[in-house]
Amino acid sequence: MARKPSAERRRQLTEAAIRAMTRDGVARTTTRSIAAEAGVSLSVLHYCFDSKQVLLESVIETITGHYIQVVKAAIRPRGTLRETIRAGFRAYWDHVAAHPGEHMLTYELTQYALRQPGFEHLARRQYELYADTYTELIEQLRAAMGFELRVPAPSLARYLAAMTDGVTLSVLVLGHDAVPADVLDMITDHVGDHVTGLGGDPAGTPAPDPARDPGDRGSSPGGPAALTSRTPG
Q1: I want to staple 113 with a disulfide (CB 3.0 to 4.6 A). Which of 1, 39, 76, 122 is the partner?
Q2: Helix (H, G, I), strand (E, B) or coil at 28
Q3: What is d(CA 59, CA 50) in angstroms, rounded to the nearest whole number?
Q4: Spatial contact of 112 and 24, defined as CB atoms under 8 Å apart
Q5: Helices H, strands E: what count in the chain?
Q6: Confidence of residue 25 (pLDDT cuts 50, 70, 90)
């Protein structure tokens, strides 16, 4: 078997663990089954991860990374801040619909960590990671579009993490139709309430156009028309 760099081997084993746990459940997935899923010996797994806790933390971080990549690509600045926020949520819900097993696994990991003595910190780390990730996305979007927040970024991030967590569970239980267009619009507008656009305008202010003179931004069309609901793509 060809030798691989340790970081690459850890990624391989983490993805194998995600596949095995998604298929068999956390409690029924053993290190032996993960090694078999990855096509490596058990000793290789134990060399890369010296405890199950370390492996589970890697699983949590990797699953979060899967959908964050999709959301980051989707929230590139669009015509208005509202459109940009909505595109990010739409991309996330589409990822839930395409990969329900992975998202279901995140809840199972939480319950497993809370019930296993000595693993409780993993559940805390999981939800801290969610909030940290939203903070990063908010700051990325703020830097790109130049808006300000009515609340601290970490507070908005914790709110978004809690809201997304609850709606995701509803989607997994009730199906993808549990987040119709009007619910998506409501979530987007609620987030927009905590944002003040360029020059103090509402979140419907069009995104800045780098080709235009910054002094002309005040004449950009905004107002009610910019806040009109759009059907998700």
Answers
A1: 122
A2: coil
A3: 14
A4: no
A5: 9, 2
A6: very high
